[in-house]
Amino acid sequence: MCGIVGAIAQRDVSEILLEGLSRLEYRGYDSAGICTVADGKFHCLKTIEKVQALRTEVAKAGCPGGLGIAHTRWATHGGPSVVNAHPHLTERLAMCHNGIIENYQQLKDKLQAQGYQFKSQTDTEVLLCLIDSLVKTGLDTQEAFRQALLQAEGSYALALIDREHPGDLYGARRHSPLVVGLGIGENFLASDVLALLPVTRRFIYLDDGELVHITRGSVEIFNAQGQRVEKDIAESSLDAESISKGRYRHFMQKEIFEQPQALENTAMGRLSADGIAPDAISGLAQHDLSAVDNIKIVACGTSYHAGLVGKYWLEELTGLATSVEIASEYRYRKAVVKENTLFVTISQSGETADTLACLRLAKEQGYLKTLCICNVHSSSLVRESDLSLLTRAGAEIGVASTKAFVTQLLCLLLLSLYLGEVKGTLSAPRRTQLVESIKKLPALCRDALGQDEAIRQLAQEFAGKHHCLFLGRGIMYPIALEGALKLKEISYIHAEGYAAGELKHGPIALIDKDMPVVVVAPDNALLSKLLSNIEEVRARGGLLYIFSTRSLKLKNDAHSRIFTLPDADELLQPLIFTIPLQLLSYHCAVINGTDVDQPRNLAKAVTVE
Ligand code: F6R
Questions:
Q1: Which among 168, 381, 472, 528 has the fewest CB atoms less than 10 Å away?
Q2: Centroid of ligand 1 to alpha carbon of 113 (angstroms)
Q3: Domain topology for 245-448
Q4: Does the pLDDT of residue 252 top 80, yes or no?
Q5: Is the model's pLDDT at 205 over the cut of 70?
Q6: Is 604 labeled as catalytic in the residue annotation?
Q7: What backbone phi and psi angles, to 5 degrees, belong to 457?
Q8: Phi, psi (degrees; rounded to nearest 5) at 388
Q9: Over the stretch 444-466, which tens digit does the pLDDT of each residue have?
């Protein structure tokens, strides 16, 4: 989704801005732009191509000056075009915006009546003109900015500059992330710390409703009422290695192979001999969970699939009734909240607009406590939840979620283990057994990654296909859903995930020799049922690709190809069987020549509804 970078320095800032934009490319975008100030003039360039094309234009035309802002845009209001690309400009001001101004039409009507004419179809230009109109009443830029924001409804992260004041950079946020980067004699603004890692490791995270005034030597933060607020400075532990591809061709590939290490990090220090270490979940000291009787999980996309797996674990290990919902659905229905329900959100970014809106709603709905499972410690979701369980997957740059998903799964398993102990539903020997199994998990995932070459060859058979079915039963059903999501989002092959028992209720009509059917079939209690579903496909001439447990010794035949994975505790199978499906979509995407790390139309952090 959109990315913002801003900088104020003694040196020219265009290189800092362009480097920042390159580092935000992973979020997904369809146009980019930059605007600097030198000699009282704006120097603005925009493109509907990649940041590299903008770099070439800057090299040709020049973008001088020690003050500037830059943006990657993911279209919401108005299609991708140079006119709609940010920064937007008036005679005096330039601004970049992430988010949506919901009342832009009302504001636009008012401004048109005052004589404003608009070049773009964006809501951003409307907000900019509102600020401009207030500057024209004699307010200074900061006050005009603050007053305009009081009239704006919706979400925003903003960077604003005034060509008459080349020593000032302004920012503001509501429901969309924005951080201030602190340099020495220079300061920065960005929607994501990754953009600023080459210039600083010291950050101030803005909260909703805050506005910042930045100069080369100072940073002042104000609340919506215009009062100064003091904020902590945080040191980022991310390093350059975490955002480079290393020896891999794509970030997604690197992140798939990082999963064993990521899982080790997730578990590190959180396990005791027979359960969970006391400080495994942040916030437990203040928020006791012994009264929890029910669990509600809310998330989007891949994180929602993690929640679906979590339901199986939570109900089996804790006996607590658990329901899972898509965030964009939950937030707009009248939910009945049962007494003593724990509200759990799952999100890689911690900034997904629908998930965040559900958390805020849940706080008004009488839930017992809120807990988030998240990969970004500084995110809004972590800051606003009572308790948090960080996934510790490290920076995930590929748009398709891989290591974030498996670490979310492990966090859900840890939560189940903890609640099972608290509720007395898990015996000490079973807890010890589970702890031992979790310790083996990284090695089992390394073993599963050993299928890479076999799956790369298999992907050749998928390359010409247009549709694909994924089948699973029980706890493997959400893994089938996730396999289908991964395949469609990065290889653009249409795929559907089904509970295998549902096959005869409709999808079986699709089976023919051109429809690959991928089955996740570990050795578990539902295997015999699943084998019957496999026969239903075989009998109709379907092409079967079966991922199964090594000890089962299933055999290839004219209709089916078998891929084997290591034997493991049944509860851990979802994590292990996810890996070959990720590899399958990765290799299909490479063969289909898609943009693996930035698939079309997709964004990494979906910060708008
Ligand atoms: C798919 C994918 C998305 C995200 C979804 C939620 O590979 O990454 O479906 O899972 O957009 O994002 P987060 O987890 O950041 O809330």
A1: 528
A2: 42
A3: Rossmann fold (3.40.50)
A4: yes
A5: yes
A6: yes
A7: -70, -40
A8: -145, 150
A9: 999 999 999 999 999 998 878 99
Q: State the distance from the centre of ligand 1 to the C-alpha of 602, rounded, in angstroms.
A: 10
- Mutation to probe ligand 1, out of 304, 325, 349 (largest number of atoms < 8 A from CB): 349
What value does the mean pLDDT take over residues 551-555? 87
> Which one has a higher pLDDT value, 165 or 558?
165
Q: Does domain 452-592 have CATH number 2.30.30.40?
A: no
Catalytic residue (one of 50, 403, 486, 604) = 604
Ligand 1: list residues with CB < 6 Å. 300-303, 347-349, 352, 355, 400-401, 485, 489, 605-606
Q: What share of the chain in percent tops pLDDT 70?
A: 99
Rounded CA-CA distance 548/520 in Å is 6
Q: Which CATH superfamily is domain 3-242 in?
A: Aminohydrolase, N-terminal nucleophile (Ntn) domain (3.60.20.10)
Of 2, 44, 96, 129, catalytic: 2
409 CA distance to ligand 1 centroid (A)?
14
In the chain, where the domains are located: 3-242, 245-448, 452-592
Distance 304 CA to ligand 1 centre (A): 8
Q: Does the structure show a pLDDT above 70 at 242? A: no
- Which DSSP string corresponds to 67-113? EEEEEEE--SSS-S-TTTSSPEE-SSEEEEEEEEETTHHHHHHHHHH
Establish whether 363 is a catalytic residue: no
**CA-CA distance, 76 to 96, in Å (whole number)?**
14
- 3-class DSSP state of 506: coil
Residue 240 pLDDT > 70: no
pLDDT band of residue 348 (cuts 50, 70, 90) is very high
